[in-house]
Amino acid sequence: MSTEILIVDDNADIRNIINELILDAGYKTRLAANFNQALSEIDKKLPDVAILDVKLDKGDNDGIELLSHIKSKNKNVPVIIISGHANIEMAVKSLHKGAFEFIEKPFDSDRLLNFIKRAVENFNLKKENQEYENKLFSSYDIIGNSKNITNIKELIARKIHKNSKRSKNPFVILNGALLDSNKYELELFGEEKENGSISYGALEKANSGTLLIDQVSEIPLDIQSKILRVLTDQKFKRVNGSNDVTVDARLVCSSSKDLKKEIEIGNFREDLFHRINVFEINIEPLNQRISDIPLLINYFSKKISENYNIKELNIDENNSYILNHNWQGNVRELRNLIERIAILQPNTKDKISNIIKESLKNNNFDDQIAENSLSVPLKEAREKFEKEYLTIQLKKFNGNISKTASFVGMERSALHRKLKGLGIKEFN
After folding, report:
1. Domain total in the chain
2. Domain stops at, among 220, 252, 276
3. Do 173 and 234 belong to one domain?
4. CB neighbours of 334 closer than 8 A, spacing ≥ 6?
5. Which of 18, 215, 406, 409 is least enclosed, having the fewest CB within 10 Å?
6. Rounded-to-5 percentages of helix, strand, coil across the chain
7. Which parts of 57-209 are beta strand (E)?
8. Host domain of residue 106
9. Which pTM was predicted?
10. Which range is least confidently modeled, 168-177, 232-241, 381-390?
11. pLDDT tens digit string along 55-81?
């Protein structure tokens, strides 16, 4: 699809000159002669690049308002500001607001065309990077066969099926742990600025779609109360706004903290918890789902090899460093390890094993066992090792005694006796 450029200027001659220049360069164009026409074109469909005159029919800073409006919708769209009444203050203001370039009238056609070409390249590069990131990280499936992950598959499948009408609408993510404490309200509800422009918040962007609030436990109590009010009233006011904005968005929240404990210590509102806890999914940490690790290794190896266009990685799924690692970063940490191996492209199993060992050495189970074993008698050291070893193997095979016994080379009845003797509780 050809790049589309929006040209906004109230002077018909200048508008036509820029239009012909851009068409001759092989791009598509859309034209607007005043502020309202420009606003309509932007809201109808965002252009790939915009060229905006500063002063139109509405006021002296029309172009700056349109610039802010475009950036509130997609910050990656390059905007070139042009003006016949230029000064240093105006240029600095437009660049501070996110303009790609600022050019004075009368302008040199070659210079403007050079700006346009650079803007198009900039947009395409950011678009390709975004598409690559989405392909690499956002399209992963839910992988695993542990009891916990199998239940999650079913629950999520039912939920998606039940609410599939929203699937084509926006999916917006707000990370509560990464926001400046002073910006929660702005990020959620947006802002009406003194110049009349609007900065849209996450709630409004997610209208008719889904808003995921990641690490909801990190949101301050005063903002929690406002979220509760939105869930109750289905409307809110933007910061500095006077009119209600109606919103219909499905809210999904995640937290790495126990919200019930956060309620007990006064960090989370109980009424908000009950409002968002209509449907709950608990995900155990990866080190409690060892049986899923080999499946995840195979899955990520295949996906990442495809994305890097390299031969599929041959990673030993029973590597002790992987199975015994603590995985504080859970699945993301495992995926990053597989990607690191793909980037380094080792050509032997030994080299792959060395990368894994080096990457995970700070929490290496083998080293911990060796250190603990040196300070106790042989019998106790052997019992400690057996207990750790058999506990891990049981987790690896999801509590299946027959599979565990076969792998460790014991009779099923002998393994039962061994587990009982070591005080290891069997699980299903």
Report:
1. 4
2. 276
3. yes
4. 286, 293, 296, 297, 300, 322, 327
5. 409
6. 55, 10, 35
7. 79-83, 101-104, 171-175, 191-192, 198-199
8. 4-129
9. 0.48
10. 381-390
11. 888 777 788 889 989 988 888 899 999
